[in-house]
Structure formats: structure tokens, C-alpha cells
Amino acid sequence: MSLFSTISVSASGLSAQRERAEVLVENIANADTTRTAEGGPYRRRDVVFETQRVSSPFSSMIESQFGDQANGVGISDIAVDNSDPDRRYMPGHPDADKDGYVSFPRINPAEDMVDLLGASRAYQANVSAISAIKDMIQKSIDLFR
User: Fold this and answer.
1) How many CA atoms are closer than 13 Å to the CA of 14, on its beta-carbon side?
2) Tell me: the pLDDT tens digits for 8-25?
3) 109 vs 18, 26, 32, 37, 103, CA distance in Å?
4) Domain-wise residue ranges, the chain
5) Distance from the CA of 74 to the CA of which of 50, 93, 137, 143 falls in 20 to 30 A?
């Protein structure tokens, strides 16, 4: 695998972790949303990753010569949690049913915050990898001077 392919792999990781962070922030923001346009409470969403082939315009020549193709990460799906919502007794709430219960999303903000920290660290790890590869490429260029 060439250094340019490695940059493409890390770039795919950056993109996937950014999308994961966006979904986690949406979950946290809607932790108390009891009514949506679809009806009912907000449904928690989770990002599902998959392996994807990545290519770099700079490394396509090397890959064609050596047949070495890089695999990165991509988003295959955004899964929606269809489990029963949490029901809380709140008779004065505008979304309460006839028995006084309100349906809330099954979201644990603390869990999603931990997942968000993980996404942030994975994003930073990919940034660090790209920076290290950039330094390697620069040192290689300096060697040819």
C-alpha cells in the first residue's frame, strides 16, 4: 500500500467518524423529544460501519502495477431503534395518553456522550495518521534533493 492510499484510508475514517458524531449529537439533542413529524417519540439512531475500497488519484498507478488496493471504512446504514419507548407518568404533559403516561425515546445521554468521546478520539487518531504520513512524504521528497 502506498502512502497516498494510506491517506485515503484515514480520510474515509475521518468521514465515517464525522457522520457518527453527527448522529450521536442528534440523539443527545432529542433525548426528551416526545413528538416528531412521523408521530410518537424520537427514535435513537446508530451508525453501522462497513469496509469499503478506497482509491487515491495519486496511487492509482501504483495499485495498477502491484494490485494492492486499500480498504477503508464507510457507512452502510443508519439503524433506527424500533424498541418500545420509555413510558413515564406525567399526567399534565401535552403528549400524555389517556392514562397519563408520556412516551420518551430510549436514549441514555451519558452513554451517547461516551460514544461521542470515542468518535472524537477516533477522528483525532485519523488526523494524526494523516499528519504522520504527510511528514513521511515530505521527508521522502527531502531525500531526493
Assistant:
1) 14
2) 889 999 999 999 999 999
3) 18, 11, 10, 22, 17
4) 3-143
5) 137
